[in-house]
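About this split. The held-out portion is used to measure sequence recovery: a designer receives only the structure tokens and must propose an amino acid at every position. Recovery is the fraction of positions where the proposal matches the reference. Here is one held-out target exactly as it appears in the evaluation file.
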């Protein structure tokens, strides 16, 4: 495709959609990129950078890596909304998204924009940081956009388990930026992110089971029922908290241990309540508790690294 034909494809879909538009339209476009999730993924990358003992990274490299992860995550999120527009219309929670609502037309120009953002993100990480970090940035975006969204989401109840690797790759990207020799602390933190994702999203899926069923998405509670899904969530949460304490045996300090223990205890209390009474109220409480647990853990990683 020539530069002129590419421009003619992108222009009506992207530039025309936002040029001269009111601020509300800009917010609509920004919402495509799921920036709140992207910021969380970016923070996990920074935590991966901090957790490497003796790692060396410049301020510029840290900034570029953080923005690369944010941009790649945003591109994957936008692709998810593009592909899922039809099913998003079937769920009250997602029917107001830009493509699902029809506020933005899902033209192929958006795909070019999404691909361009992801390519720039990976390229910047490779140029300024290193190739291994860039590889992990790319794998994170590919896992969420292609493996989870296209390959698994509508085919298996274990979709989000594999999809959880996206967060793990962000941790590894940060660790690789600090040192190509990724040590046990970074690997354990990546494993924590992998184990965190299923109980986090399954809790939300229990709260919105009817919506996922109506949209034909085989999330775990749709397939096995809320009661069994709630027990599985609690079991995964136990495994998550146990693994989150393992870094204490590999050099992590007391601040990390305190954050992991307090955040983990709060999450386990909520998932135990969910297992006893699998309903929307307890499921949402477990969902928000998972955010508290991860926030406490990541904050403890950064503070612990600063005190070394």
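Reference sequence for scoring:
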């Amino acid at each position: 495709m020539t530069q002129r034909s590419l421009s003619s494809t992108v222009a009506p879909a992207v530039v025309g959609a936002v040029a001269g538009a009111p601020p509300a339209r800009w917010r609509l476009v920004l919402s495509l990129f799921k920036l709140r999730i992207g910021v969380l993924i970016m923070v996990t990358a920074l935590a991966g950078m901090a957790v490497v003992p003796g790692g060396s990274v410049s301020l510029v490299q840290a900034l570029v890596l953080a923005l690369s992860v944010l941009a790649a995550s945003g591109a994957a999120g936008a692709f998810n909304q593009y592909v899922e527009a039809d099913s998003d219309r079937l769920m009250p929670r997602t029917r107001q998204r830009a493509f699902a609502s029809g506020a933005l037309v899902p033209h192929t120009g958006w795909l070019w924009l999404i691909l361009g953002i992801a390519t720039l993100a990976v390229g910047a990480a490779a140029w300024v940081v290193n190739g291994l970090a860039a590889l992990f940035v790319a794998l994170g975006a590919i896992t969420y956009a292609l493996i989870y969204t296209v390959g698994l989401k509508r085919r298996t109840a274990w979709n989000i388990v594999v999809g959880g690797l996206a967060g793990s790759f962000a941790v590894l990207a940060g660790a690789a930026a600090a040192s190509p020799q990724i040590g046990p602390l970074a690997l354990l933190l990546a494993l924590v992110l992998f184990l965190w994702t299923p109980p986090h999203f399954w809790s939300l899926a229990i709260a919105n089971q009817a919506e996922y069923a109506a949209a034909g998405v085989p999330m775990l509670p749709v397939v096995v029922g809320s009661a069994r899904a709630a027990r599985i969530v609690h079991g995964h949460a136990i495994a998550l908290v146990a693994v989150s304490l393992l870094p204490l045996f590999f050099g992590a300090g007391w601040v990390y241990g305190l954050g992991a223990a307090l955040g983990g205890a709060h999450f386990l209390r909520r998932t135990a309540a969910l297992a006893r009474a699998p309903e929307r109220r307890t499921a949402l409480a477990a969902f928000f508790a998972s955010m508290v647990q991860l926030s406490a853990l990541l904050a403890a990683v950064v503070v612990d690294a600063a005190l070394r």
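Annotator remark: Residues 1-23 have pLDDT under 50 and may be disordered.
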